[in-house]
Write a structure and sequence with these properties.
about 425 residues, alpha+beta, Deoxyribonuclease I, Chain A, 4 domains, 6-stranded mixed β-sheet, 3-stranded mixed β-sheet, 12 helices
Length: about 425
């Protein structure tokens, strides 16, 4: 390799498989240490300059199910041997197996098979899931026009610790060209477009602040005593929103840092109280403990609401789990690009925003069609009032709803001479 490409290194699994199914190549600036090799996988520890090290496993699963099962068992053993549940782990390659019927192009494949469940259970035990990717769902095709079949056989998987290390990571599946598989490129430093101003979100923990009700009541009163329409209600809500933002910023912003500082203060006071017990230190320790517990509950509530996980009991202090779920949701929900009907990919933030506004305007806000103009004679009201006068003169009763309309029209200054003259004649 050094003779052909200076500054590059490689490793492969030729020692484990005669065909050498996996080859890993890297630059000299990257440090790679091989941890494990087999006929179906290569696992190595990778250190990129300026970033923490992570573990990468390249897989090339066998075509037959029995041998593939050996790979799933091997991955579980690798995870246990190198404690990969506590290390950033990226795993990618050709798995030669789908995990859901939706990953097969044929409609006849409409149920979970034992092979699908086997791989899915393995990935669940490993804590691995698909990194957010761009490109086609199917990554393999048979290229046979008479019986076309496509499947998702290739994947790029990560555990939650990878998003902590590379929060902007993204995968790209490109056209296969001469191959029957789509190549995948992993970008660990994908540039995320600026989101601009974030919309207001009400966090449930705000209600736990002792001044919450007072702040809402004061903001509501300052915006006026009564509201009679939606405009007034919207104005009041905006006033409350501003006050709640201030309440949140002054008391709960950077909640992780606040919890850490409260913990440090508590531990310092506990050490002082043990060295020199006194009523003052015990009282300070008691207050510090209450503050720390309160902020921990706020932190848990914050991440639980953002993670949208509702099935765990409140109070279990699953903050780490909720935090990882938040990172996962952010990674999956972020819109990184748009693919136009022409196939052009837009990644510029400004162009994306213009395209999004244009798209939704065409659906939700088309140019209104002007209402058709209708013409009618204005003399009908005068004739109607004259007929009312005739009926009343004969001692009969009559409904006067149209008469109210006449008064309304006169009040607007429209000025129908026959209406005003008839009303003048009537009264």
């Amino acid at each position: 390799m050094d003779k052909l490409c200076r500054g590059w290194n490689f490793t492969s699994n030729h020692s484990e498989d005669a065909e050498g199914r996996i080859i890993i190549i890297w630059r000299d600036s990257v440090s790679v240490r091989v941890l494990h090799k087999s006929s179906q996988s290569v696992t190595c520890e990778v250190k990129i300059p300026g970033a923490s090290q992570f573990v990468y496993t390249a897989v090339y699963a066998a075509n037959d199910g029995v041998t593939r099962t050996d790979l799933w068992v091997e991955l579980l053993q690798i995870s246990q041997a190198f404690s990969l549940d506590s290390a950033p782990w990226i795993l990618g390659g050709d798995f030669n197996q789908i995990i859901h019927p939706a990953e097969h192009s044929l409609a006849d494949v409409n149920h979970l098979s034992s092979d699908m469940v086997e791989l899915k259970d393995c990935l669940t035990q490993l804590g691995l899931y698909d990194l957010r990717y761009q490109g086609p769902l199917f990554t393999w095709s048979n290229h046979q026009p008479e019986g076309p079949i496509a499947k998702k056989l290739d994947r790029l998987l990560i555990n939650s610790l990878v998003l902590s290390l590379f929060p902007n990571a993204s995968a790209f599946f490109h056209p296969p060209l001469i191959s029957d598989h789509t190549p995948c490129i992993l970008d660990l430093a994908f540039k995320i477009p600026s989101a601009g101003n974030r919309p207001f979100k009400f966090y449930n923990y705000l209600t736990k602040h002792p001044d919450f009700l007072l702040v809402v009541q004061n903001a509501w009163a300052q915006a006026g005593s009564m509201v009679w329409n939606l405009t007034g209600l919207c104005w009041k809500q905006k006033q409350i929103k501003g006050e709640l933002k201030i309440l949140n910023r002054e008391n709960f912003s950077q909640i992780q840092k606040r919890v850490s500082e409260a913990n440090r203060l508590l531990t310092d006071l506990q050490v002082q109280a043990l060295h020199s017990p006194s009523p003052q230190l015990f009282e300070q320790e008691k207050n510090a403990l209450q503050t720390w517990r309160f902020l921990r509950d706020i932190e848990e509530s914050y991440y639980k609401q953002r993670s949208r996980v509702n099935w765990l009991k409140v109070g279990d202090q699953n903050t780490t789990f909720f935090y990882r779920m938040v990172q996962t949701r952010l990674s999956f929900n972020l819109i990184r690009s748009f693919v136009l009907p022409t196939g052009v990919i837009i990644e510029d933030a400004t162009q994306m925003s213009i395209h999004a506004v244009s798209h939704f305007k065409s659906i939700l806000g088309p140019t209104p069609v002007p209402a058709p103009v209708t013409f009618s004679s204005t003399g009908w009201m005068g004739d109607y009032i004259n007929s009312i006068v005739l009926v009343l003169s004969m001692g009969s009763s009559v409904r006067l709803e149209p008469l109210y309309l006449g008064f309304a029209l006169c009040g607007t200054g429209v000025g129908f001479p026959d209406i005003t003259s008839s009303l003048g004649y009537l009264f």
